[in-house]
Amino acid sequence: MSPFSSTLNLQPSFPGRAYFDFRSSPHQLSLHSSLQSLNAPVAWFAFDPGSAHSDIIFSNDNLTVTCSSYDDRVVLGKTGFSKGVHYWELTVDRYDNHPDPAFGVARIDVMKDVMLGKDDKAWAMYVDNNRSWFMHNNSHTNRTEGGITKGATIGVLLDFNRKTLTFFINDEQQGPIAFENVEGLFFPAVSLNRNVQVSGCSICEAAHGSVSLGPTLESPDQDAEERGVRGRTDVTREIIPDQQKPLHYI
Questions:
Q1: Which of 30, 76, 85 is nearest to 56 (CA)?
Q2: DSSP letters along 107-137, please?
Q3: Phi and psi of 75, rounded to 5°?
Q4: pLDDT higher than threshold 60 for residue 171
Q5: Cβ distance 153 to 146 under 8 Å?
Q6: Any idea where the domains of the chain sit in the sequence?
Q7: For labelling, which of 9, 92, 138, 194 has a CA lying 20 to 30 Å from the CA of 64?
Q8: pTM for the model
């Protein structure tokens, strides 16, 4: 049994999941090709309290987040990526059909007190119970029918080989490729308010090229300080001047 099945309710066999077995377009075939290369084990992933807005509330060993404010607040994942192909999923645990949570990627210095995608440091999909939009630098594009409810799964595919970012809702691609010419260091990111709770996520990656804002966890019940960065020998440290946070480069 997968270690994720009881905690995150995720299905770990990403390369074989039906929604990547696309047939209808060259891009969908390329997505299938990308995910077929993700043969590494699924990694545990946690949200980062140190870089999050102070209104974000953490639980479940930082695998679950909600918010104390009615305004949108941003939280990042601890692990960032700069190359390779990466896919992760998040589950919507609580949603009352009114707010628009946003999911995507961001730079470390993204604004934390507005919806994800409002500034030029985030690339996101925001979604309600009927439809979604893509947003970057407060530009809203590609309205797409189909929304979320409690229990919905959001998938994010960050493909540095093709320089693209693509979104999924409940195992179906949501709209076209969301963003192209994607380059640099990105962290998984979410914005939400007090009416939304998000859990999980897992990460499946095809290549190294990740950065961690904290210890990398294989499971939430392991001692990260004792483990350190397990199995990785090429780790260096750098301090970000404005955050003063240690980064683990892989």
A1: 76
A2: -TT--SSS-TTSSTTEEEEEE-SSEEEEEET
A3: -135, 140
A4: yes
A5: no
A6: 41-249
A7: 138
A8: 0.73
